[in-house]
Automatic annotation (TrEMBL):
SMART domains: HTH_MERR. This is MerR family transcriptional regulator. Gene3D superfamilies: 1.10.1660.10, Antibiotic binding domain of TipA-like multidrug resistance regulators (1.10.490.50). Residues 72-103 form a coiled coil. It comes from Naasia aerilata. It holds the Pfam family MerR_1. Keywords: Coiled coil, DNA-binding.
Length: 255
């Protein structure tokens, strides 16, 4: 029995883009490819995808997943290492919660925040691997230098802008708006403008991020739980609306 790529993506709750990406990395090869280039997967492929998604859900990076599946790294050892990373992540999240709690308390009391209090627990380097895999080391290097050069006030303003965009996406999701709705597309326009200010993003000749970059980033919001958390805190399924809105915007304005 075989499953076409679209059926396998739908059944597993992932995307055809993700399945092709896994194939390009050598993690998941199709059992055969049709004359038109359409991919099919057999029972072994289904079970392998199940393992990939399980390890992905645990937070293991794709490179480590490849090593585990190839038998080049002991699975238990890989999970032990990841457990240590999860504990570090829990500590970082606890610090972030304390930072936001302090921010709320001081804003309500009319007090000023220090830079250390504002950004305790925030670490932009957590996405380094994904950025380098998708857009190259130069993209991460340039964006990292751009971020580090910002003042605390500039960093706060940039993050506040993202939070406002996320909140508006969440409100649109709760209102039942579709990705094609003009109100949602207006948010996508703000989202695009916000991303345009980041150094290192693949650029169009006329300026601004490329369609592939913008739509691909939307896919990451759904595929990667760390990215999903930036939007689904405002409502279950919001990240999917964000992805679809970014894809529509790219098709309408960037192609």
């Amino acid at each position: 029995m075989e499953w076409p790529i679209s059926d396998l993506a739908r059944a597993s709750g992932t995307t055809t883009r993700a399945l092709r990406h896994y194939g390009d990395l050598g993690l998941l090869q199709p059992s055969r490819v049709g004359p038109s280039g359409y991919r099919f997967y057999d029972q072994d492929g289904l079970l392998r995808l199940q393992r990939i998604l399980l390890l992905r859900d645990l937070g293991l990076p794709l490179a480590t997943i490849g090593e585990v599946l190839a038998g080049e790294q002991d699975a238990e050892r890989a999970l032990e290492v990841h457990l240590d990373l999860l504990k570090q992540e829990r500590e970082r999240l606890d610090r972030r919660i304390r930072s936001v709690t302090t921010t709320l308390a001081k804003r309500r009391g009319g007090e000023q925040m220090t830079a250390n209090e504002s950004f305790d627990g925030f670490d932009h380097t957590e996405y380094k691997e994904e950025v380098e895999q998708r857009w190259g080391k130069a993209a991460y290097r340039d964006s990292d230098a751009w971020w580090r050069a910002k003042s605390p006030e500039e960093k706060r303003a940039f993050q506040d802008a993202q939070l406002a965009i996320a909140a508006d996406y969440g409100a649109a999701k709760q209102a039942g708006l579709a990705a094609e709705d003009d109100r949602v597309q207006a948010i996508a326009q703000r989202h695009y403008d916000w991303l345009s200010g980041i150094a290192g993003t693949p650029q169009r000749p006329q300026g601004g991020p490329t369609a592939e970059y913008f739509a691909g980033l939307g896919e990451m919001y759904v595929e990667d739980p760390r990215f999903t958390a930036n939007y689904d805190m405002h409502g279950q399924g919001t990240a999917k609306l964000v992805r679809d809105a970014m894809r529509v915007y790219a098709e309408r304005h960037l192609s």
